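ENTRY TYPE: protein
CONTENTS: sequence, structure tokens:
***
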Amino acid sequence: MNLDEALTKLKEAGYKHTNKRTMILEFFSKEGRYKTAKDLLAYMEPYYEGISFDTIYRNLHLFHELGILESTELDGEKHYQMRCANHHHHHFICRNCGATRRIQACPMNFVGEDLTGYAIEGHKFEVYGLCPACQVA
């Protein structure tokens, strides 16, 4: 999802375009990788003195609920990134820098056979490790 699509989705859901919301979405649009609420707060503090974690988390939750951001948990902390393409895929996620790489293979192609008679409602598959750049560093 790009910035314009995210802003359109926000507006269509009946939410206002505020400068803070636009800046949050710009942050994730530019980053192109998983980032934490702490990363976002550090980015926004120079522009919005006294901005709170409550404001950050409230907007992250809203964007996640609207399908603008996707999330994962790394080392006990939630990380967010702009939602990827609308087609089915999975990710390799670098535990150090949050970079992602799309994985086309889906384990459900094999697991489904073991669950005959079950109503599968969804799944999530992520592989964690270090990207090539972080292995060198």
